[in-house]
Amino acid sequence: MDEKRLKRWVLYFVLGVILLLVVFPPKNKVRNIEQVGFHMNSSDRLYFHNIRSFSYEREERSDWGADILEMEESWVADSTVGIHFTIIASWRREEAFLISQRSHFLEDTEFQFWIGNSIYPFDWSTANNEDHFELGAYLFNALIEEDSTAILVGGTSYPIFPDPRSKKANLTTLEDYFRLVGKYH
Fold it and tell me: Which of 17, 36, 158, 169 satisfies CB 3.0 to 4.6 Å to 71 for a cystine?
């Protein structure tokens, strides 16, 4: 009788834990995403290389010792306002970089980003890897928290990502990048 009771209690306990995990699933948490870092951990690199990299168009650059990874859906047409993100993974140096690219419509135009409740100026002519990382981090946090984002050109605001498909692809690129460099789990 005691053995049956013990088995029953263990079964109830296991079912209770499973029920709690179903009702309250663990959430991905952003951790020190504002702290700039490009180093890839081996486990994150392997996960990306074996699972996530197949979602990207890959251009191998042997002269750089790196791969350029872009989602086709994230590209912005030349005639629209918007940006998209590209991952540059240097497998030899175990570093990954995030590069933001603007549409040709914005090339000769002065503009700023509206992210959350603040204006974020970004100068492509002087931007370095840290600047692209920070822009990606601000946008990633805003997209996760569903804050408002826009590109301000003169007195007009435009969506940063011109369509839902582009927005989803860029969010996926940002999530994959910050996971690759160990900033998002």
Answer: 169
Q: Read off the DSSP letter of residue 32.
A: S
CA–CA dist 183, 181 (Å, integer): 6
Q: Judge whether residue 78 has pLDDT over 70.
A: no
pLDDT digits (tens, 9 = 90+) for 57-72: 989 988 888 999 998 7
Q: With contact defined as beta carbons under 8 Å apart, do 86 and 70 qualify? A: yes
Residue holding tokens 């804050």? 147
Q: Are 88 and 113 in contact (CB under 8 A)?
A: no
Is 68 in a helix, a strand, or coil? strand
CA–CA dist 52, 180 (Å, integer): 10
Alpha helices in 24-163 (DSSP H): 42-47, 129-144
Indicate the SS3 state at residue 157: strand
Non-local (6+) Cβ contacts of 87 within 8 A are: 56, 68, 69, 70, 96, 97, 98, 99, 173, 176, 177, 180
Residue 33 pLDDT > 90, yes or no?
Answer: no
Helix (H, G, I), strand (E, B) or coil at 91: coil
